[in-house]
Specification:
single chain; alpha/beta; FAD/NAD(P)-binding domain; 2 domains; seven-stranded mixed β-sheet; globular
Length: about 350
């Protein structure tokens, strides 16, 4: 390491790509610091995204006996009264297990972790502000931005995280609804629609597009939609959402043409934006696009500032945990084996 810097690599974010990059750099004999804004490592993938949604899915399938209904009948259930607490209990145990694994992995590879919000002072120095307001400054020869994304929350959607949710907040439900409106027929919207449908909750999916999951083979999508309709999922496609109103404690989606869809709860899944707005990117010579994403070289994952890399959801498609991990590994390897 050059004595001019505190660390060979500073990683901002401890999600799949950040942690994989940190461990790879450590295995190459480099000193590494991971900056994580939340009080526990793991990033969105562990706490709001991949792990929670898959845990909820498996918990619901297990408790409802959904996989066995073809044999025992549609009325078969392992647990007759399933509550939000049942789901949260399994989720809490799973997240504790995942965090423990990550903390052990960092410790075993001598990767340092500092909790707080990082912001660039220049292209090598980062100020870290802790929850109590205390600040410190660290410098790195190479820097990797792996801050992930957060749900897009339009100002005209009255989110309260009790009745109207985004995809991060839905995993912390206090009670289960009898009916759910899902706005957005992308990957996240369809996934949660199927989870709640398995709980025998009436689900209506709304999307301005005429079709769902545009990147998937059309025959597969047609079969999926046929299967979901058979299970009681309602689709309102090709209908633009005009507004969301609260009436008698329930959300009502007002669609183009005046059609109204009422439910007990509403999940808004209008895409995600890169969590780059607090990084002070201008100080290091970078600029994010309108959705907060960073442009990188697709082979090396270098940004326009060559010693600053970016990986994971913050660079856009495909936004998969497995892909993000490989991006982090390749970025760290390139950073310390080239030039």
């Amino acid at each position: 390491m050059s004595k001019a810097y505190d660390f060979d690599l500073i990683v901002i974010g401890s999600g799949p790509s950040g942690r994989r990059a940190a461990v790879q750099a450590a295995k190459l004999g480099r000193s590494v610091l991971v900056i994580e804004e939340q009080h526990r490592v793991g990033g969105v993938s562990v706490h709001e995204g991949t792990i929670p949604s898959k845990t909820l899915r498996e918990t619901v399938l297990n408790l409802t006996g959904w996989r066995e209904r073809g044999f025992y009948g549609q009325s078969y259930r392992v647990k007759s009264e399933i509550t939000a607490n049942d789901l949260r209990m399994r989720l809490s145990k799973t997240l504790d297990f995942e965090v423990d694994i990550l903390e052990h992995q960092f410790a075993r590879n001598t990767v340092r972790v500092q909790h707080g919000r990082g912001r660039f002072l220049d292209s090598h120095r980062i100020e870290i502000e802790a929850k109590d307001g205390a600040t410190s400054v660290v410098s790195g020869e190479k820097i990797l931005i792996a801050v992930g994304t957060r749900p897009h929350r339009p100002n005209d959607v009255p989110f309260d995280d009790k009745i109207i949710f985004d995809s991060d907040a839905i995993v912390h439900l206090d009670e289960l609804p009898r009916s759910l409106i899902v706005v957005g027929a992308g990957v996240i919207g369809i996934e949660y629609a199927t989870i709640f449908n398995a709980l025998d909750i009436r689900v209506t999916i709304i999307d301005a597009r005429e079709d769902i999951l545009g990147f998937i083979d059309r025959e597969v999508v047609a079969e999926l939609m046929h299967w979901l309709r058979d299970l009681g999922v309602h689709f309102r496609l090709g209908m633009k959402l005009e507004s969301i109103q609260m009436e008698a404690g329930q959300p009502v989606a007002i669609l183009e043409g005046g059609r109204r869809v009422r439910g007990d709860m509403l999940l808004y899944t209008g895409g995600r934006s890169g969590a780059t707005d607090t990084l002070n990117l201008s100080a290091c010579g970078l600029e994010a696009d309108a959705r907060g994403r960073l442009k990188v070289d697709p082979q090396t994952f270098q940004t326009d500032v060559p010693h600053i890399y970016a990986t994971g959801d913050v660079i856009g498609f495909p936004s998969l945990a497995s892909t993000s991990m490989e991006q982090g590994r390749l970025a760290a390897y390139h950073a310390f084996t080239h030039g």
